[in-house]
Amino acid sequence: MAERLAAVRWIYQERTKKMKSESSSSAASAGQSPLKTGAQIIVDTLVDQGVDTLFGYPGGVVLPLFDKLYEGPIRVIVPRHEQGGCHMADGYARASGKVGVVIATSGPGACNLVTGLATAMMDSIPVVAITGQVRTELIGNDAFQEADTTGITRPVTKYNCIVKDVKELRRLIKESFYIASTGRPGPVLIDIPVDVSVAKHNDNEPAEMKLPGYRVQTKGHARQIAMAAQAINQSERPLLYVGGGIVSANASEELRALADKAHLPVTMTLLGLGTFDQNRPESLDMLGMHGTAYANYAVQECDLLIAVGARFDDRVTGKIKTFAPNARIIHIDIDPASISKNVRVDIPVVGDAKFILDELAGQVEYKERKPWFEKIAGWKKKFPLRYDRNSSNIKPQYVIEELCRQTNGQAIITTGVGQHQMWTAQFYKFSRPRQFISSGGLGTMGFGLPAAIGAQIARPDATVIDIDGDHSFNMTMTELATAVENNLPIKVCIMNNGYMGLPRQWQELFYNKRYAMSALLNPEYATVARALGAAGETADKKADVPKAIKMMLGEKRPCVVDFKIEREENVWPMVPAGKSLNEMNGLDILESMA
Ligand SMILES: Cc1ncc(C[n+]2csc(CCOP(=O)(O)OP(=O)(O)O)c2C)c(N)n1
Ligand SMILES: [Mg+2]
C-alpha cells in the first residue's frame, strides 16, 4: 500500500515539475499568438475567478480540458465518483465562503452530479459545475454518452446553460460564478460541448457580463427596517430565529451585535448552527423537529419572531397553522421568493442580512425583558438535552460530547444524515459560522465524508471531523481513497448502530417496531479503512472512547474510528411530522434521566 501510494505521489510530483517548466515556455510563446483553445479559456477564466483548487473526474469530452489542467496552475482533486466530487466542492464552499468548482464528463458523469447539485441547491451553496457535452453537431442524436444535462439539472441548479460558441465561453463562465455567489447563492452548471473546448478564439477582447434580468437587492427598504426596529423595541418576548443565510452573508458579527444591543435570545436552524455562539446564555440552540424543548417553547410563546436568512422549512415549523401562534413575524431574507412562502410574514425586509442587521442594530434599544428571560431559563433548567450517562454502553451523545471536549469545541464537523446528524447538532457546541457542515434541505446521506474532504482542502490548518452514520458512510466511503491519496488528515467517527437509525426510530414509534429493511450487513470499517491506506480503529467499550478519540486526533493520516454505539438509542425530543412545536415526544424520557 505504502509503495503504491508513493508511486502515485511520485507521478504527481513529476507532473508538477513538468507543468512548471512547460508553463514558463508556453508563457514565452503566449505573446506571439492571441488564439486560445476553449479549454485554455476555461482554465484562464477559472484562474481569473480566483479558483486555485477544483474537483474533477475525467472522461472523453472533458479530456481537452483535463489536458490543459495538467499544465497547472489549478490543483485538481480527483474523487472516486462524481457525486463525491460535487459534495467536495460543496464542502469546500461551505468551509471557505468561496465558490466550489466541480468538473464531470458528459452522460454518466453529469448524471452523477445530480444529487450533489440538489444538495447545494437546497442549502443555497455556491458551486459551479462544468460538464463536458458531446460535439455540437451530435446533440440530440443519442450520441455516445450524451445526456440532456441542462434539461436534467435545470430544477436542481440556480441557473444553467450550454455554450454553443467558443466566443461566448469566457462571458458565460464569468456569469456562472457571479450568479452562483451573489444574491441567494446556489449551484450553477455550464455545459460545454467538446468542439467548443478545442475551437480557437482570440481571447483578448473583453467579455462583459450580460445579465439584464438578474438583480440583487442588497440594501433593505429603509421604511421596512424602521418598522422592524420599532417592532423589536416594542416587543416583550422577542426571539431571533436564524439560518444558513447568516453564514452566506457573513453576518455573524452583525447578528451578535444586534442580539447584544437589543438583548434578544437566539435560536438557530440546523444550517444556522454556529452563527451565534452556543456557549452564550442567549443561545437557545437548535429549534424544530429535533430541536431543544426551550427553543420550541420559545417559538410558541414569543410575541415577535425575527427570522433572518431562514426559510420556515417544515422540519422547523412543524404544523404551520399553529406555528408561533402569538407572534408578529419579521422576515429578513435576500430572496424575495422566500417571503411569505410557507408562513405569512408581517414585516418583510428583502436584502443582505449583513447590511440589514447592522442597520437594525443602530435603531434598537436595550430592554431588560426580565420575565421573558426568566421563563426561558426555566425551560432550560427543566428540559436540557440529556442522555443516560450511567449506561455501560457507548451512547452516541457521550462520544460527541467527548469529541467536543477534546477538540475544545473548535473542530470543523461534517455529518451524514440520520440520528447521528441530529445528536451532533444537539451535543457539539458550535461557536463560529462555517464550523458545522451538513446537508439540511435535501438530507443527503453520504454527504459527510466528501464534504469533510472539501472542507479539509479549504482549511488545511483545521481539524476536520466527519461524524457519520454507518449507512451514510456506506454510500460514499470510496472517497476515503481520495483522502489518502491527497494526504488529508480528516477524521471519520462512525456512530455505528447497525441501523438506518432514523427510519428505525420512526418504525419503533409509528410502525409498531417493525424494522422493515432498516438494518443491512455492514463491513468491518476499521479493516476497510486500513485496506484503503487510512488508519482504522474500533471502539466497542465505553472506556475505550476517550483514548480512541485521542489517538484519532493525533493521527496524521485519514483516520476512521468505528464506535459501536447503543443500537436502539433514540433522538429526543421529537416533534412528530405534522405536529405543533410544543407537542414534543420524549420530554418525559429526558426528565426521567435527571
Ligand atoms: C440518499 C438518501 N437515501 C435515503 C435517505 C432516507 N434516510 C434518512 S436517514 C436514513 C438512515 C441513516 O442511517 P445512518 O447513516 O446509519 O444514520 P443513523 O440514523 O443510524 O445515525 C435514511 C435511509 C436519505 N436521507 N438519503
Ligand atoms: Mg446507523
Explain the overall architecture:
The chain is an alpha/beta fold and 594 residues long. It is built from 25 helices and 20 strands. A six-stranded parallel beta sheet has the order 3-2-4-5-7-6, with helices on both faces. A six-stranded parallel beta sheet has the order 11-10-9-12-13-14, sandwiched between helices. The protein has a six-stranded parallel beta sheet with strand order 16-15-17-18-20-19, sandwiched between helices. α4 packs across α19 (448-458). It is globular. It starts with a helix and ends with a helix. 52% of the residues are buried. Bound molecules: thiamine diphosphate (TPP) and magnesium ion.
Summarize the amount of helix as a percent range. Answer: 40-55%
Largest sheet: 6 strands, parallel
Low-confidence stretches: 24-30
Strand content: 15-25%
**Major β-sheet strand ordering:** 3-2-4-5-7-6
Radius of gyration: 25 Å
Tally of DSSP β-strands: 20
Mean pLDDT over the full residue set: 95
Measure the end-to-end span.
50 Å
The ligands bound in this entry are:
thiamine diphosphate, magnesium ion
Using the alpha-carbon principal axes, give the shape. Answer: globular
Helix/strand-derived category reads alpha/beta
Q: Helix segment count?
A: 25
